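Subject: DNA utilization protein GntX structure
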Amino acid sequence: METTLDRRGIRARTAGAGHESAVCGAWKAPCYPRRMTIARTTLALAPARPTAREAGACPRVPRRERLLRTAGLYGRGAAEAIAETLWPTRCAVCDTPGEVLCAPCSLNLSHIDWWRACPRCGAPFGRVQCSECNDVLMSVAGRDEPPFDACASAVAFDDAAARIVRTWKDAGERRLAGAMATLMAPMAPPSWLADHPCIVPVPATAAARRRRGFDHGEELAQALADRLGLAVAPVLARPRSRDQRALARRDRLANMEGRFIPLPGASAFPSVILVDDVYTTGATLFAATDAVRVAGAATVRCLTFARVW
């Protein structure tokens, strides 16, 4: 005897006197293999959003800047409101919403004490005996002493300062220039400003300007000049050169030798303050100082945001 039952797609067969039964076609939920494969592939390929501490910069910044540049002609106020809604302003160090550099993170930076730093090269704790501009290191650079008259930096280059610089230069958060200049301005004592110097930015290479869309040196110099009440004069040109970040001290010095060219009009400024973002080995500032000296500057001082220490 054979009995067939159809209930929810189950077909049962009963055979023989023992009434043994077997399920030969159990019901299964419908599946969509192509759709599921696409979903699994999309989830597997989707990258996780890095945090500010992991990536050093938040990926929202370039999109925000592109929106502001695109919508600038149609009303920057409305564009800023839309950008703030889509990509809220966050601290470059702790990623807290509100400011590009929050007050707690600004206070927790490794600030350099002017009275303990070397008065010549600005190295922290070098007021009595400096380990950065001594005879040994100057002999490596082929000099007796630093070419500039004085140098100062606002903070030591630690992890927090590195995140600020990367977010500003590589992630396009250009508003950080103002926060950095605010920290740099107190490091210029009144004696530096007595002869009304001109702020001269250390220019970026043409490749760096194309990659970032702006000259970070000029923006930092302008923000600092606004706070000190001085004028900015971009009187240096920088031909093509190798990236300094992967070079050792000797290679940095050799790479920057004669890499800056004074532009016409540079001789009109007898006293200048060279501005750069990071002082690493001094090779860039040494070469820039040589260029403005050739142009006729009698007094050259240097001011940077961070100092590698």
